[in-house]
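Example record used in the benchmark description.
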Amino acid sequence: MNDTPLHQVLGERLIDAREAALTLNLPLYWLTHAKERRRLGLPHYRVGKLLRFKLSELIAWMEESQALHTADAVHEEEADAGLQ
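Model output (structure tokens):
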């Protein structure tokens, strides 16, 4: 039997939806409802019937989403300035 800790095999500890929501201050339903996960493109894993997340992937998703939101806002401001 191999005594290697699971986090070394996976590269990172997997967390549940409640822990992810609390850690990142996200609405729990974003993580627990399949439609919301698909709509938002949230990275997640199924371990049997359990739903798990990697914190680093969620942080990267949040940073990417913020960057896209910021870029959209800049484009809207530029478009508004061009109309005036």
